[in-house]
Write a structure and sequence with these properties.
Blueprint: H1 2-10, H2 14-21, H3 25-36, H4 39-55, H5 66-84, E1 105-106, H6 142-149, H7 153-164, H8 169-175, H9 180-197, H10 212-226, H11 230-234, E2 237-245, E3 248-253, H12 255-267, E4 272-279, E5 282-289, E6 295-307, E7 310-318, E8 330-332
Parallel strand pairs: 2-7
Antiparallel strand pairs: 1-3, 2-3, 4-5, 5-6, 6-7, 6-8
Helix pairs in contact: 1-2, 3-4, 3-5, 4-5, 5-8, 7-9, 8-9
Length: 334
Amino acid sequence: MAADLISKARAGDGDAFRELTEPHLRELQVHCYRMLGSFQDAEDALQETLLAAWQGLDGFQERASLRTWLYRIATNRCLNARRSASRRPAKEWDMPNVEPPEPTRLSEVVWLQPYPDALLESAFDAPPGPEARYEQTETISLAFVTALQVLPPRQLAVLVLRDVLGFHANEVAEMLDSSVESVKSALKRARARLQHRHTTDDREPAPAAGSPAEEAIVAKFVSAYESADLDALVALLTDDVFTSMPPMPFEYGGRDIVARFYASIFGSGRRSDLVPTRANGQPAFAAYLRTPTGISHGTGLIVLTLTGDRICAMTRFENSVFPWFGLPRSIPSR
């Protein structure tokens, strides 16, 4: 069947090509997202991958599977994007009437964007290969994707292909036109760098998605945030809680300064309604700023990272991400 579709696609049958590639589209998009950290850039890379595959189908020699061949194209398109593109610049502070405290530090990764959970289900249909080291849910988390972005491009590619997707070293070497020894060396360096940046071993695991434990902390967060109850919000935070706001570079680390940050927001009189969604396997909320007109306007998407019964990170994204989540720009105020 596949051979027949390949023959038809090589003869110019677009429907046959779509039937061949359709089962792999979502996992390829997630792969590009891990590589690039941006939903928008991942979609662009996926479209470039499909165009290159369509134009280069005569060169597919079927030594490897079609899936492996597509991953080779996608990986190299992402590497080109990482090497050639000047990533999106940081933005200035954009909350009127809010004077934030001095940030703990400025982010290296201001181009980060969230990935909608609604698109993840079909992305995990293909189980990772035998070389994979990470759980699939961890590999889409904001913390993991952020840590990947600071790796050099080639190390990033090797780590994702080997430890996330589970391809063998010889397969990765062929994908990258490299040697097995070079792949092993890059993987060793990437693992060391990632371990330094992405350490969660000492934290309690997050409660299961949709579990009563997750629902309990989420309900407390919504109540505290919508009522601007700073004490109630701070009570939910870990000592080392972390807040970031890509593409603004401001980052705040530690309960005290995060409390001061939210004190500046609540103290300005801003009040928001929250609409639940999910991103990167984590609970998320669209924030809608209340106005005297009775209409609340979307201002951003807040993604929570949980550990046990506490919040260890809050990441706020711009409202430009709303369409990916099927969220409206405005809602009636509650």
